[in-house]
Amino acid sequence: MEIKTELQLFHELSFYSLAHPNKEYFIHQHVVDAYAVQYLNPETKIIKSVYGLLGLCLFLEYDFTGKEVQNVHVSLSSDKSDWPKIQYAVEPIDFSIQSIMNASEGSERDQKIREWCEEVWKAHKINQQPIREWLKKRKVIFS
Prior knowledge:
about 140 residues, mainly alpha
């Protein structure tokens, strides 16, 4: 049996999320953000770091859909100044995409995607407040 890498599993999960029947929700955005944030390191481009973190914040704390997160990304893309400082020394994230792929397609798999997002966001506790403050400053959120 072939052992797949996380990147290979991410591609398989992307196929699932892009083909998801709920196009208005756009769960694929959450998959992209969770994967990006799980593997952040000092070499990661700042836009990928910030957008991944803000996507998880908006999804988990403000109930944004993937489509709404994508729209925020687009609206913020015109001004790439004043990025928040991101810390890379975070809690270890012990979550494999394989556990998502093992879940049945549909609501069970979608719930596993949410759990993954929660684990990744929780591991980035050090980055949560700077992201919230940056979103307030940019007038994306108000509380």
